[in-house]
Amino acid sequence: MSIPKHIRYLVVGAGVHGLSTAYHLATVLKSRGTGSGLDIVVLDKSSVGAGASGIACGVIRNNYFQTAMRKLMVHSVEVWESDPDTYNYHSVGYIQAAPDVMQADVASIFRQQNEIGYSSVLIEGEKECSRYMQNIFSDWQARNISVVLHEKRGGYANNLPSMHALAAKAEGEGVKILTGVYVTGFRKHAASNAIETVVTDQGDINCEYVVISVGPWIRNIWQMLELPKHIKVRNSDGTVHDGVPMWAFWSLQEGTLGVNPAMQKTNDGSFPPVIHVDTDAPLYSVLSGKLLADGLWGIYYKPDFNFGGIQGGAVPQKISTDADEVKIDPYGPHSPDYIVDESFSEMWVSALAHCQKRFEGTYPKYKKEPSGGIGAFTPDSFPVFDVFCDNCYIIADSNHGYKMIGVGKLVADEIAGKKQGLLEPFRFSRYAQGSLHPVSNSPYPWS
Ligand SMILES: Cc1cc2nc3c(=O)[nH]c(=O)nc-3n(C[C@H](O)[C@H](O)[C@H](O)COP(=O)(O)OP(=O)(O)OC[C@H]3O[C@@H](n4cnc5c(N)ncnc54)[C@H](O)[C@@H]3O)c2cc1C
Fold it and tell me: Which residues does 419 contact at the CB level (< 8 Å), separation at least 6?
């Protein structure tokens, strides 16, 4: 395979963000008559969807406590809805069921969804929530649920098929995707901070503009660009924390119960919304009966033919190792260090059985294959979408991002010269300025 000596736009990473940016940039250039997909090359060290996008659970929701995230998700859901068959998108909706401690947060999400016209239903009160859920699943039995938010849009998409669909759309516009090409460094212009050359294991490529969309590998590229390992973070109350690590890794806990996905059909025989439950009811093991959790815990799940069963996950675990020491490769299920262990399967299947009676006795069906993967998180666990080194757009989604297929569309518009208000709250300068996103009572780092 030959790599070009020069290209106008070089995108590093063939996951959701790199592919979406390349495809949308090609269409923007074409519509303006200022170029086409032939001006764009995407490089990936492995293959299309080899990173987090290819192993993601694939859940697409609007359920965010932060206004800026919610608005961004409306835009992304519109992109999923624009071509659902090609994107392998299942618009089944999304339900969050939560306990007292989260009731006010969830109700405020509902109010704000209403204001922006995002269709959802709010149920409050324990009895009312049970009744609502039992109308969907007659065997619903989760306890301490005092609020339910049912989003009518969103749902999930099939991870790898959707990435191949995006790649085909980009290639259809003339974009070249070169796999098996490893970016190892950057050279700047003699007279400015801008990148002139991207160095790869197959030779140098001169370019006018670079897009970095490397998911969990952002730590490596950040180092290559000589960006700061530690930063100053000003909290909303004005206090300043110096020396905060720019990157921290979390290990995503996910797995599959190898049953017929159709067993999770609703009372009326349709495929159900994605279910996300947070509760503080005691959780007991389906294996030993011992108490597994007596504080806040949470799980999410959906029937998924792509995974071959009921697939989902639980609250991720923070990796305490210094970010520089975390081994990202081999990635995902191939990692010797960061796959889920039996404590996950015991907790997750026990939690499924806590929520719905149909899952009682199903533990032996849990697929004992490696699963899970790691994500690189920013200091406030929200994305950074910004230009660095004058001509380098970094898309670092802090592991929120499979659902964010629309970000590449917005980035393409910004590259073409039109600033996008939806991306403004995600600039790097927010850490120095103290313009952080509000924090919710959810047990997850990304809610
Ligand atoms: C287990 C798991 C489940 C998840 N579930 C969901 C979910 O349900 N919903 C959701 O919205 N998000 C989910 N996420 C988060 C989401 O998957 C990521 O935020 C998103 O996919 C990141 O996309 P990306 O394009 O930035 O990076 P990636 O998809 O990771 O792609 C990066 C690409 O860059 C390439 N690359 C890296 N370094 C180099 C280099 N030096 N040279 C060349 N190529 C390079 C890699 O090979 C890779 O293909 C999940 C994440 C994990 C790990």
Answer: none
Residue bearing the CA closest to ligand 1, atom 37 = 214
Q: In this structure, are 107 and 140 located in the same domain?
A: yes
Overall domain count for the chain = 2
Q: What ligand 1 atom has the least distance to the C-alpha of 46?
A: 47
Residue 304, ligand 1, Cβ within 6 A: no
**CATH number, position 317:** 3.30.9.10
Do 140 and 163 fall within a single domain? Answer: no
DSSP per position, 212-276: E--GGGHHHHHHHTT--SEEEEE-TTS-EEEEEES-EEEEEEEEEE-S-GGGG--TTSSPPPEEE
Domain boundary among 377, 399, 421: 377
**C-alpha 53 to ligand 1 mean position (Å):** 4
Question: Range of 435's domain?
Answer: 1-90+155-242+380-447
CATH code at 50?
A: 3.50.50.60
Encode pLDDT of 72-117 as tens digits. 999 999 999 999 999 999 999 999 999 999 999 999 999 999 999 9
In terms of domains, do 397 and 428 share one? yes
Tell me, in angstroms, the distance from the centre of ligand 1 to residue 103's CA: 32
In this structure, how many other beta carbons lie within 10 angstroms of the beta carbon of residue 45? 20
12 CB near ligand 1 (under 6 Å)? yes
Residue 16 Cα: closest atom of ligand 1? 25
Of 326, 357, 377, the one marking the end of a domain is: 377
Q: How far, CA to CA in Å, does 256 sit from each of 34, 155, 259, 290, 311?
A: 47, 17, 9, 23, 4
From 42, 53, 76, give the residue whose CB has the most ligand 1 atoms within 8 Å, as the site to mutate: 53
Segment 146-192, tens digit of pLDDT = 999 999 999 999 999 999 999 999 999 999 999 999 999 999 999 89
For the Cβ of 401 lying below 6 angstroms from any atom of ligand 1, the answer is yes
Residues 98 and 80 reside in one and the same domain: no
Pocket test for ligand 1, best of 3, 41, 45 (most atoms within 8 A of CB): 45
